[in-house]
User: Which sequence fits this backbone?
């Protein structure tokens, strides 16, 4: 099957799960601070738990090679913080604004456009000089168990290869810690019309694992998909410089389609626009910050948190910490400081 069709189908599944689970990492992180609501955060933790076992099992069976994101400390620190602030202003994370386009949110479309254009500018466009300032990846030659993909012998850093121990040891310890947190942390009560936090988390984890097996080089992502859609669509206007659509670009398109189908079937689709025009400016600024952050850090909340943490990638751990801090800073600035 054509990889682009596989990406589209995986994206449709992903979009349906996101829409029915109402899963947005901005909301998950924000709600823990603002309202002490952990419902979506527990869904995210379940998904990461499922993927941690799923990714390592797929690698053990030889279906994939684990490909953690490269560690560039300044990139993940600055990029993570910018991304965290941006998703509060945009009203959604990378996946959140993407699937909400399928529900009819005009602000989500605006945020996604500014996010995609800015990320494309940073990743090989006119703002690519930003990445030159941030340094080069820190790698290792350790490849315990041979589960990691290597380029000229270099492997991107994870907890396992940093310590040079079997990745399964770290994965199982991490999975057990997540399981304990999920069981002990009392779940916030919430009226649910779609997938509950357990079902939604398991579904997200399974889709992520399927995505990895399909794409081979990595699991789910958003930033690279938007970059591919913008670059390919605009470049193909000029037939002398064709750029092909790829797996991730089709995945992002599939998310919108899947969310649209789910929203339509449940009668939750309608065009929605804010009454205050200032909101359009705010979400555009949020999209720009998200694009700067994800473009420089090498991934967004999906690439680094949902797909990166199951690798126990050092880069994704750093990004996740600073994305949370950026999110909470902007929550404080907008809603709590007064």
Assistant:
């Amino acid at each position: 099957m054509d990889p682009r069709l596989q990406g589209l189908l995986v994206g449709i599944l992903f979009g349906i799960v996101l829409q029915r689970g109402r899963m947005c990492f901005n909301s998950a992180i924000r709600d823990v601070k603002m309202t002490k609501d952990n419902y979506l955060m527990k869904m995210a933790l379940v998904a990461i738990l499922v993927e941690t076992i799923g990714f390592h099992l797929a690698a053990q069976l030889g279906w994939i090679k684990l490909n953690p994101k490269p560690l560039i400390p300044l990139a993940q620190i600055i990029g993570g913080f910018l991304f965290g602030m941006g998703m509060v202003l945009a009203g959604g994370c990378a996946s959140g604004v993407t699937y909400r386009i399928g529900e009819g949110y005009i602000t989500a479309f605006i945020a996604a456009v500014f996010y995609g254009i800015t990320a494309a500018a940073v990743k090989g466009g006119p703002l690519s000089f930003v990445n030159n300032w941030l340094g080069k990846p820190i790698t290792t030659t350790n490849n315990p168990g041979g589960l990691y993909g290597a380029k000229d012998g270099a492997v991107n850093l994870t907890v396992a290869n940093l310590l040079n121990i079997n990745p399964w040891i770290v994965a199982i310890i991490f999975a057990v810690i997540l399981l304990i947190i999920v069981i002990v942390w009392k779940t916030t009560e919430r009226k649910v019309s779609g997938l509950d936090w357990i079902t939604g988390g398991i579904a997200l984890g399974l889709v992520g694992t399927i995505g990895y097996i399909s794409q081979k080089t990595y699991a789910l992502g958003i930033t690279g998909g938007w970059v591919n859609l913008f670059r390919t669509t605009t470049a193909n206007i000029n037939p002398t410089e064709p750029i092909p659509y790829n797996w991730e670009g089709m995945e992002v398109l599939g998310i919108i389609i899947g969310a649209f189908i789910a929203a339509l079937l449940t009668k939750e689709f309608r065009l929605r626009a804010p009454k205050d025009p200032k909101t359009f400016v705010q979400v555009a600024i949020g999209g720009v910050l998200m694009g700067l952050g994800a473009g420089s850090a090498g991934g967004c909340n999906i690439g680094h948190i949902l797909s990166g943490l199951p690798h126990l990638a050092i880069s994704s751990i750093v990004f996740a910490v600073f994305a949370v801090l950026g999110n909470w800073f902007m929550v404080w600035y907008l809603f709590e400081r007064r």
User: Anything to note?
Assistant: The mean pLDDT is 95. The chain has 15 helices and two strands. Strands lie at 139-140, 155-156. The longest strand covers residues 139-140.
